[in-house]
């Protein structure tokens, strides 16, 4: 089984998913708009360019997102990123923190070489969790 986080945005999915691909060292592998969908002709002109689906791949991991159709699309979600080394944890944490707010500084804990939490510039919550061997 694979768990994939799906993020909803209030019209900023394209910018956000590009940002995450760069920050995490991955790439956007899928993206289409409402206008490209079978219901595209039924969409308002303003909504046709909004992202209906986007996918970022980072190694074997996936992150998906879209511009949600409701006014409450930017709901609460936390993404847990689990890098293999403290150096990678520090790089990812620093990249995601740009323009955001750190809620727990990246530091060593009893369970992790590095753990930290932040809210990024798009209002999404992240944890960076570089686990110690059990």
Automatic annotation (TrEMBL):
SUPFAM superfamilies: Glyoxalase/Bleomycin resistance protein/Dihydroxybiphenyl dioxygenase. Residues 12-127 form the Glyoxalase/fosfomycin resistance/dioxygenase domain. Gene3D superfamilies: 2,3-Dihydroxybiphenyl 1,2-Dioxygenase, domain 1 (3.10.180.10). It comes from Dyella thiooxydans. PANTHER family: PROTEIN YJDN, PROTEIN YJDN-RELATED. This is Glyoxalase/fosfomycin resistance/dioxygenase domain-containing protein. Pfam families: Glyoxalase (PF00903).
């Amino acid at each position: 089984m694979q768990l994939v986080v799906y993020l909803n945005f209030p019209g900023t999915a394209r910018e956000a998913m590009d940002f995450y691909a760069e920050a995490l060292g991955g790439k956007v592998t899928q993206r289409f708009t409402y206008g490209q969908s079978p219901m595209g002709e039924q969409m308002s002109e303003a909504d046709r360019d909004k992202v209906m689906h986007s996918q970022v791949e980072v190694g074997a991991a996936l992150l998906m997102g879209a511009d949600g159709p409701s006014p409450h699309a930017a709901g609460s979600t936390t993404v847990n990123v689990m890098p293999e080394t403290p150096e990678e944890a520090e790089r990812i944490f620093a990249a995601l923190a740009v323009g955001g707010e750190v809620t727990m500084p990246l530091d060593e804990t009893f369970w992790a070489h590095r753990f930290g939490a932040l809210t990024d510039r798009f209002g999404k919550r992240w944890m960076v969790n570089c686990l110690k061997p059990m």
